[in-house]
Amino acid sequence: MPICGQGAPHNSAAYDEADLALALVLEGTGVKMKLLEAVRYGIPAITTVEGLRGLPGDAAGAFPIVSDGVSLASLLSQLSESTDSLDDMAARQLAWAREHLAPDVLTHDLMKELIH
């Protein structure tokens, strides 16, 4: 199983063969772009609480959150038993992105803030 991590290419080639993205962010600021990039390419992603920081809406309802190696191993074990789980996860994450990150949604929220 090929694994891409820090220093992975910033293009779709890194996602061509991927079944799952891990955004195991422990610290940082702002929105974690690798997480959103995975959603963009239709790859379901697992993250941490820090990985969701800065994302709008109920991102925690769309992305499985792990806190340590044990919870990650448990989740990966569950996911390995069914590709439907990965497909469902990808669909849930894409629906979340469409609801909260669509250009008209972001523009509306920005304009609302600017007007007030």
Structural features, described:
With 116 residues, the protein is mainly alpha-helical. The chain has one domain (12-115). The protein has a two-stranded parallel ribbon. It is built from 6 helices and 2 strands, in the order E-H-E-H-H-H-H-H. The longest helix has 19 residues, at 83-101.
Task: Give a summary of the structure in a few sentences.
The chain is mainly alpha-helical and 116 residues long.
SSE blueprint:
Elements: E1 21-23, H1 33-40, E2 45-47, H2 49-52, H3 59-62, H4 69-80, H5 83-101, H6 103-115
Parallel strand pairs: 1-2
Low-confidence stretches: none
- Strand line-up of the largest beta sheet: 1-2
Number of domains: 1
Strand element count: 2
Strand content: 5-15%
Q: What is the average per-residue confidence, as pLDDT, rounded to a whole number?
A: 85
Shape: globular
Helix share of residues? 40-55%
Q: Calculate the terminal CA-CA distance, rounded to whole Å.
A: 51 Å
Content-based structural category = mainly alpha
Q: What Rg do the Cα atoms give?
A: 15 Å
The protein's oligomeric status is: single chain
Order of helices and strands: EHEHHHHH
Q: Tell me about the largest β-sheet.
A: 2 strands, parallel
- What is the count of DSSP helices, taking H or I runs of 4+ residues? 6
